[in-house]
Structure formats: C-alpha cells, structure tokens
Amino acid sequence: MNSARLDRALKILEYLGHHQEGAALKRICDDLAIPMSSAHDLLHALVEIGAVRLADQRTYLLGPRSLVLALSIVDAVDLRHISRPFLIELCEELNENTYLAVRSGNTVTYADRYEAGQTLSVVMKLGGPRPLHGSSVGKLIAAYNSDLETRLLNAPALEQFTPFTHTNRAELRTELANIRSRAYSVSDGESVEGIIGLATPITDAAGVVAAAVHVSAPRGRLASDRLPQVLAAMSRTAALISAQLGAPETAVHAKELPEIVSSEAQRVAATG
Asked: Which domain-ending residue is among 45, 72, 99?
C-alpha cells in the first residue's frame, strides 16, 4: 500500500472514530472527498482485517482491532494523568473545585475532580452523564463536535431542568455558535438554579475537542468582576493540557483577560 492509500485509510478510521454512530459509504466519501471506488476498496480491506465492521449492509463502524488499538493509546497517553497537575494547580489558584470533563460516546461525563475544601461547594458526581443542552461542559463539547450538535438540535425533546435551561432550538444553535466564537461556555442556573458552571476546551493531537476544564460554584462566588478572571485561568489551564496532548499550535490559544471581559460584556448584554 502506498503512502496516499495509507493516509486515506487512516482518515477513514479517524472519521469513524468521531462518528461513533457509524456512517454509510457515500457520507464517508462526501465528507472526506475520497472517490467512491477508492473508499469502497479501502473499507473492504479494513473490514477483512477487523479494523472496521459493518453494522448492516450500509453502515460502517470501527471494528475490534481499532478499538483495541484505541484502548492501548489511551493507556499510553492517559488524559487524567496528563491533566492532573494542571487541574490541581488551578484548584489551588481559584480555591474552587476543578473537574476534567470528557466526551463518552454521545454524552459528556466528569472523569476527574479536585476539591478545594470550600464550606459551600458544588460536588459533581464522577461518571454520570451531563445534559448536552443544560450544562457548560455539554454545550461546549457539542459546540465543537458537529455530530453531537446535530444530534442535540434534532432531539425530539429537550428537558427543562430549570426556568433558565435552553430548550428553544434556534436559541440553542446561536448559543453553540457563540461558544465556538468566544472559546468558553457558561451555564448560569441552567441545570441547577443558583449555580454557575464554566468550561474551556481541551484539544487533542488530532485537533478534536473531546474534553474540557470545568469549574462550578454558587453564583455569589462567581460575581461579574471575578468570573472573567476565573475563565482566564481556566483557559490557560486548558491550553497547557492541550499542548501536553500534542494539539496543533493553531488550536491552542489561551484567552487573555481583556478579551474575556469583552466577551462577557456581550454575553451578559445578550442574555439580558
């Protein structure tokens, strides 16, 4: 196999890794700009060696050999191990609980937590799914992953957790676009009234945002003058973790405080 065919095969595997629901041949060809005949031959070869499997006659998914390889890579580059010192340092700097949130299939969950010891604190359960539309981490990771965004916006119903939960799809679409623009997410009482959640994106070596730095606290501790400072510290932390993961330099950008202050002024004005 020449290098061009090998590159196409790897692109197909990466594509299926980001589309865990599977994809048909035509969609793969259209999205990756690969000729139909070439993609068909490559997929046939990948199915033969167990790197890809057919869920039915049309839908391709990652096969067992790819999953074993993925688990081996995860073991070698443990996101929790890499992020731990940075999250601990952030916890000590802010004196607030800090979390590592990760994408898990079609949901987002907390994979790690560091507690600051505040008398009144927000302690989130590890391993439990977070709503994509009603949490800062859910909105952020959906904003950066088009398949999750599409699934969210096409969901038959969006649960109303509080009076502030985004359930209007047009407003939610705008919110996700704004999150991508400002590179952070804010949830103000959207899953629990009186609690503000913040999230900043962690980018991996493939340029994918599948994890986030998260902080939650009572609204009184994240007043308008302190919130931008917290976000700036979180943005620096996420950028440091991303760099350790080998993220492309163009994808790693810590937001500076003046930029966040400006973004927050616009966000608050838009929300009334």
From this structure: 72
Give the pLDDT confidence score for residue 60 in this predicted structure: 92
User: Which residues does the chain have with pLDDT short of 50?
Assistant: 76
Express each pLDDT in 231-248 by its tens digit. 999 999 999 999 998 888
pTM of the model: 0.70
Q: What angle do CA 17, 21, 100 make, to 5 degrees?
A: 60
| DSSP 8-state symbol, 132 | S
Q: Quick one: 33 and 145 in the same domain?
A: no
The last residue of one of the domains, among 57, 72, 87, is 72
Same-domain check for residues 9 and 49: yes
Give the ranges where the chain is alpha helix by DSSP (H). 3-18, 25-32, 36-48, 64-76, 79-94, 136-144, 146-153, 169-182, 227-244, 257-271
